[in-house]
Amino acid sequence: MKKNKTANVMAGIYMLVFVALFLVLAGRFMYIQATGEVNGVSLDDWAEEQRTASYEMNAERGQIMDKNGMVLAYDRPAYRMYAILDEAYSENSPEPLHVSNTEETAEKLASILEEDQSEIKQTLDEAVQSGQFQVEFGQIGRQLTQQEKDEIEESGIPGIYFDEEPKRYYPNGMFASHIIGFAREQEEETEDGIEHSITGVTGMENVMNGVLGGTDGSISYQRDRYNQKLLDPDEVVQEPEDGDSVYLTIDQKIQTLLEDLMTQVDEQYSPEKMNAIIMNPKTGEIIAMSTRPSYNPNSPDSVENWYNDPISSPFEPGSTFKIFTWAAALEEGVYNGDDTFESGTYQPNERIEEIRDHNQGEGWGEISYDEGFMRSSNVAASKLLWEDIGADKYYEYLQAFGFEEPTGIDLPDESTGQIQYNWPSEKLRTAFGQGSTVTPIQQMKAASAIVNEGKMVKPYVVDKIVDSTTGSVLEEAESEHTGQPISPETAEEMKDLLATVVNDEDGTGAPYKLDDYVVGGKTGTAQMPNPDGGGYLTGKDNHVFSFLGMAPMDDPELMVYVSIQQPELEDTESGSAPLAYIFNNVVENSLHYLEVEPDEQESNQVQEVEFPEVVDASTESAQADLEDKGIEPIIIGEGDTVVSSNVEPGQNIFPSEKVLLLTDEPTMPDITGWSQREVMRFADMLDLQTERFGNGYVTSQSIEVGKPIQEGDYLGFELEDPSSESSDTSSDDNDEDDSDDEETSEDDAEENEEE
């Protein structure tokens, strides 16, 4: 009886517990059914989320164009790879649709992508062990090309799939890289997962990121457990708004020419740095700009120099700064070009360090101030500042020319330099560009006053912004004057002075003279400050050589600044050699391309002729045809048929240009007197192995004239600068450069005598 009583009590307790649990669970179910929530989470919303797939739709980033609509940067498709691991995905399929063998998959992917097989396998194995439905591969599986995608698909690897994503592409490679900059993919973790976008990092890509970026859209739909759309997917689409297009003032053809010339000089002279700016001095439009070292924005992983040096790296400009000293003297009314002074050295008083002209203080005797400008006399510049303009008034002109403020160019990271102007010696040196620092773009803006009747123009690189959908212009740049430091009369007189520097026999700018256009400009040869202490580095190569020029001088259409730091020069070469190669080629060709009429320097101006088709023609008929056009071709060999020419058919050339016709039985021509460039064109026609000795024009050749030659033969040739023979006796009568060297040792006197 006692046991029955205990059992009944326990049964009652269990019954009460069971009833209580039942009531709690039933109540909970009733509450959930009534409210539709669990722990504050709506079951309807949760179910909707589970069966709804949402994806971001990337807006297409706006294109960057040159001024003529040539594409400089655009989005092109790339692919993100992922793997499906769930076996259930292959149900009802005769072939596996998921990754069935991680080792085999990793091996094939590693072979195609040239990646580490173990890393790919580890990614797959870890995802399988954690029961993931699918997995991505990180950077290994991102930004794949169409070719890589096709190879993977053709290999038949099961379970590997792709999503399309944009990739920023720069079709011209190392082209205006510091202006265009680059954009790269960025990842951002959000509530919906990791979002991917392309964001500008440097240059225009960064500055105009808001304009180029656009607004991303999205798409959502109902799905099954395999992420497939339902028959009634309840799809919601929010279309993306593509970014707008940015048109630059850069001209793709001129920029390409400049880049090619810079690369050639960079390879030949191995300088520390090079800079070049081509500007329309009437409007301020930057037509081309380049710097070395540069980089390819398609692979910016090993960039030597992030700075856009023409606007971001101030340096002591040297004698190009004398432009503004003479302009200040003219504007003040204290300049008479016929007045004379004693060149060589100048010392206002014993407490001020002596100023010396660039030929070791030897000078040129008593010369006029006009001649002082042509010869780039440091003494003339210092005397003008100290005795005529006045140091305080000169400083006001420097401010009026904008040397203590940014130009306002629409590029990032502009610097302003610093005018060192406290002590008398600093003031005197500033007159010829030593001690104080400025940027090339500051000099370009200041010099634009000479072209625009005394008014400076603000440089700019963004021409317009265009709606990528409608094609309508949203914003358009206009030329902007930013001050008038000099009068129209002073500007005209400065143009005349600049022209004498290049075209007068005593001018330092003789190497920059062109055949078709009158050039004006100013040379500069600035010393390099010693990084290990005070003073300056010595030696011929330790300078920044520069030239600021414009053409044609009656109405300048182009203004160009080029500089080169510490080039490896031959003993017979001056610093103007690499600069003149860039300046002359880019200005002459650009003015012709812009259809600027050549100056009528000669009444019998020679006209260009169209080169005919000569390949496969008989040698005799091709020669006769060319001679009828006034062209005297050089026949290479004794064959009966022309197999190649150094001029393309349809190309316009001057009759005086060297035309080579290669026959089917080539022999070695006499290349004495040819330039290095002409020899290299000839060598390219036969793929000859060449070796150059010296600089200038050919004086001897390793292959005898008339000897049969064939592809791959070795050709050595010696060159000599025609001016080198007279350089020892001509002193500075035919200077090519002007050095602002005041602290050069006697050991370097011979080297600098030619500067």
From TrEMBL:
The keyword Transmembrane applies. It holds the Pfam family PASTA. InterPro entries: Beta-lactam/transpept (IPR050515), Beta-lactam/transpept-like (IPR012338), PASTA_dom (IPR005543), PBP_dimer (IPR005311), PBP_dimer_sf (IPR036138), PCN-bd_Tpept (IPR001460). It is an enzyme of class 3 (hydrolase). Pathway: Cell wall biogenesis; peptidoglycan biosynthesis. Residues 709-755 are annotated as: Disordered. The chain crosses the membrane at residues 12-31. The keyword Membrane applies. Residues 730-755 have a biased composition (Acidic residues). Its EC number is 3.4.16.4. It is found in: Membrane. SUPFAM superfamilies: beta-lactamase/transpeptidase-like (SSF56601), Penicillin binding protein dimerisation domain (SSF56519), Penicillin-binding protein 2x (pbp-2x), c-terminal domain (SSF54184). It catalyses: Preferential cleavage: (Ac)2-L-Lys-D-Ala-|-D-Ala. Also transpeptidation of peptidyl-alanyl moieties that are N-acyl substituents of D-alanine. Keywords: Membrane, Transmembrane, Transmembrane helix. Its main location: membrane. Residues 605-665 form the PASTA domain. Belongs to the transpeptidase family. This is serine-type D-Ala-D-Ala carboxypeptidase.
